[in-house]
Amino acid sequence: MAIELKMPALSPTMEEGTLAKWLVKEGDQVSAGDVLAEIETDKATMEFESIDEGTVGKILVPEGAEGVKVGTVIAVLAGEGEDASAVTPAPSPAPTAEAPAEQQKAAESEAPKSPAPSGTEKLAAKAQPAADPEVPAGTNMIKLSVREALRDAMAEEMRLDERVFVMGEEVAEYQGAYKVTQGLLEEFGPRRVIDTPITEYGFAGIGTGAAMGGLRPIVEFMTFNFAMQAIDHVVNSAAKTNYMSGGQMRIPIVFRGPNGAASRVAAQHSQNYAPWYASVPGLIVIAPYDASDAKGLLKAAIRCDDPVVFLENELVYGRTFEVAQLDDHVLPIGKARIVREGSDVTIVSYSIAVGLALEAAETLAGEGISAEVIDLRTLRPLDREAILTSLAKTNRLIIAEEGWPTCSIASEVTAICMEDGFDLLDAPVLRVCNEDVPLPYAANLEHLALIDAGRIAEAARKVCYRQG
Amino acid sequence: MARAASSSSGKPKRAPSKKPAAEPAANTREGGEKFALRSLQESFEKDRRFPADEAQLLHFYEQMLLIRRFEEKAGQLYGLGLIGGFCHLYIGQEAVAVGLQSALEEGKDSVITGYRDHGHMLAYGIDPKIIMAELTGRHAGISKGKGGSMHMFSTEHAFYGGHGIVGAQVPLGGGLALAHQYRDDGGLCLVYFGDGAANQGQVYETFNMASLWKLPIVFAVENNQYAMGTSVKRSSAETEFYRRGTAFRIPGMKADGMDVLQVHRAGEIAFDYVRGGNGPVLIELSTYRYRGHSMSDPAKYRTREEVQEVREHHDPIEGIKADLLKAGVAEEKLKDIDKQIRATVAAAADFAESSPEPEPAELYTDVLVGSY
User: Has residue B261 got a pLDDT over 80?
Assistant: First the structure.
């Protein structure tokens, strides 16, 4: 029986990849462990090995093909005694509608053959934010992934200021665990792009000390989940020392890395720390969504004289957005941005949930509800004015946050609306967050736990007193 | 600076800029099992005491006495309710800060310590008035009254705190050392921590990186025998703290922390080695605190006799006084010094009591540097 070789998933978040190179050709004998092809993900080029013995039959996806979805049959392998030139992929299963009713019923009671889609698939969003009014009209725009935007921001600031350096796990020779620091070692050398051992508490402290000593460190946490080991230095050493020293001790440091739920990595690797850091006076907390904000705000963060926690999102790294082609694209810290104008309801959001809020706004527009979407961008200090100005216009407000609801940014925005916007409200403020549970591994449970555009739209209808 | 590990030789890609001072070849990875971590201690043991001249002896005496009298006064003000919160006195340990800091190069090196920090600041020549005013929470205090006893800093003197979280100063000191190395300014960082902090994990995380990257840093363990109320024997599997860098190939030294001349000499050897680009040194200074861990500690975990024994036979100030008298300095002269110091401390206390508290508006300043 012919063996189908399928496009493999090579990381938790990979949905598609490029078939960079075939290392075998049709008719070749292969044994288990032989490298068949090189597959490029947005993070790395990986070798694809055979797990079976046989002869390469038909190669179905040619070298250089981009955007090959995970699970696509890319080649078939003929087993012993089979004619390699004759093997073809097995026909896809007959549509269930044609199956006898009893058989179908039996199939339904069985466990699914392939797992349900990951919960994070529903965090994908195609809707684009409106142009940033900070960017002068007529500026040439280029398409850039968030990953590239962050890398460019660091590289530009490192060229401008000799004191800026990057340290963290796998930032140099490995080119970044998520490839955000790609190319920096080559340009700036090991003095300024420093690989650390796996020792978050230690290097967060060393980074903070280096900032005290007059440098401008960018400390990358592979993810913010691991920064819990280091949170003492972020909070006690970086955030408080300027105050405790009566303004003598500057700590110009950026702690950055991916934050929030990744895909199918379960509770310890899937958490949004925004509310934790945003509760600490002495810190600046930034959580951008699109590439333009990622670049402009990371540059601002590096120049900032205060310690900054810069929360990125792994699932957004590969998304591309328009970024202004400017010599120095720096955006203001502490300013929210209206990413879609509307008049009936305000959806306040940040980070990955902005994409979902935009999707929800799109759906709502089709129902005659005009939603304004605000990307907070900076979580501390929070742009209260932007929230209240929008509320004054729409009189209805919901918050969309990929994170737990309890003591969340959503809770904080709700409090602002109660304290300073009570008279503006025509409906209660609603929070749309993840379920209040540790994020589960099972695909179906993960799916149930996470926020999505549908829930956001539903909450918007509710505050507009409309039926979905 | 072997950050970029080379796969073939395991040697650093960039050699240290300066020639190592003492037996470097025996202390590198190539040395295999023969690497000598005892070489610094051996050269120290050849000549343990710094041969101070009369002026230097007098200087050490004055500085230690200033710390002693200052801390006694602070204890008194605490009793009067003028100083609040936690207040950790340095009485008994004076020789450590004075001995080490006098061996540093002013204007080049940096210092960082934990919460028992008054002595280190005084040893650096920082005005006792603004230290005392910080203790009483006044606007004229070195941190505008917002830091208190445990959180004092002087960027002017390259004194970087004053840190309240046990052990946190160790990686922070690693960062200061990284900044020295990054700028290639020839400076080193001296980081102090206690026998209690020596059991914190972040200390060893820092040992590893400091040795791996050959950071210019000296780790000084002030072993005052008690981590708050827990004696070294009850808290530490390895009570010889100078050995604790061995796993990271950090040479260790041990000196009598009650003898300022030994401490100074050990400091010289360590600093010289570190300045040679050889990476860190760990010095254990065996010392003793006469008072409780903080003002609120009744110190019931040790006997009165134990404290008395140290006071009578090992007191660092009495020790240097004996050296001075032996050198022919008149007792009258020492009495005069004592009188002057008492006057300085009394003036500091007056200043700290009479200067105003911070304005209410100070509550909101220095939270952030920028406006957003």
Answer: yes
Task: Report, as ranges of residue numbers, the positions in chain A whose pLDDT lies below 70.
Answer: 1, 84-116, 468
What is the distance between the alpha carbons of residues A358 and A362, in angstroms, rounded to a whole number? Answer: 6
How does pLDDT run across B278-324, given as a tens digit for each residue? 999 999 999 999 999 998 888 889 999 999 999 999 999 999 999 99
* Domains (range + CATH), chain A: 3-85 (2.40.50.100), 123-130+138-324 (3.40.50.970), 337-463 (3.40.50.920)
Mean pLDDT score across all residues of chain A = 92
* Residue numbers of A between 318 and 347 with CB closer than 8 Å to B: 332-334
Superfamily of domain B52-351 in CATH is: Thiamin diphosphate (ThDP)-binding fold, Pyr/PP domains (3.40.50.970)
Between CA A457 and CA A369 the distance in angstroms is: 10
Q: Which residues of A touch B205 (CB under 8 A)?
A: 197, 199, 201-203, 205
Q: Which residues of B touch A172 (CB under 8 A)?
A: 3-4
B366/A214 touch (CB, cutoff 8 Å), yes or no: no
A-contacting residues in B 142-171 (Cβ below 8 Å): 142-147, 151-155, 160-165, 168, 170-171
pLDDT of residue B17: 44
Query: Which chain B residue lies closest to A335 (C-alpha atoms)?
Result: B372
The confidence score (pLDDT) of residue A127 equals 87
Cβ contacts of residue A194 below 8 Å, gap of 6+? A165, A166, A167, A168, A171, A172, B3, B213
Taking the C-alpha atoms of residue A204 and residue B206, their distance in angstroms, rounded to an integer, is: 10
Residues of chain B neighbouring A203 (CB-CB closer than 8 A): 171, 205, 209
Report in angstroms the alpha-carbon separations of A119 from A315, A439, A442.
Answer: 12, 10, 9
Q: Quick one: closest CA in B to A246, which residue?
A: B143
CA quadruple B137, B142, B143, B148: dihedral sign: negative
Residues A261 and A434 sit within 8 Å (Cβ to Cβ): yes
H or E stretch at B69: helix B54-79
Q: What is the mean pLDDT of chain B?
A: 91
The answer to whether A184 and A218 are in contact (CB under 8 A) is no
CB–CB contacts below 8 A, A to B: 176
Q: Say yes or no for a CB contact (<8 Å) between A305 and B367.
A: no
Average pLDDT value for residue range B21-49? 68
Q: Which residues of A carry out catalysis?
A: 200, 269
Confidence label for B14 from pLDDT (cuts 50, 70 and 90): very low
Rounded distance, CA A397 to CA A391, Å? 6
Q: What is the pLDDT of residues B111-132, one digit of tens each?
A: 999 999 999 999 999 999 999 9
Neighbours of B309 (CB within 10 A): 12
B165 with A236: Cβ contact below 8 A: yes
Residue A458 φ then ψ, to 5°: -65, -45
The domain locations on chain B are 52-351
| Nearest-neighbour CA in chain B from A172: distance (Å) | 8
Q: Is A347 helix (H, G, I), strand (E, B) or coil?
A: strand
Considering only CB atoms, B175 lies closest to which of A209, A246, A247, namely: A209
Mutate to test the interface with B, among A206, A237, A378 (most CBs of B within 10 A): A206
CA A355 to chain centre: 11
pLDDT at B24: 46
| Dihedral over Cα of B272, B220, B164, B117: its sign | negative
Which residue type does A231 have? I
Q: Which of residues 201-220 of B touch A (CB under 8 A)?
A: 201-202, 205-206, 208-209, 212-213
Q: Which amino acid is at B49?
A: R
Is A333 in Cβ contact with B5 (below 8 Å)?
Answer: no
The answer, for A245 touching chain B at a CB cutoff of 8 Å, is yes
Give the SS3 label for residue B124: coil
Instruction: List the single residue in A with minimal CA-CA distance to B163.
Output: A237
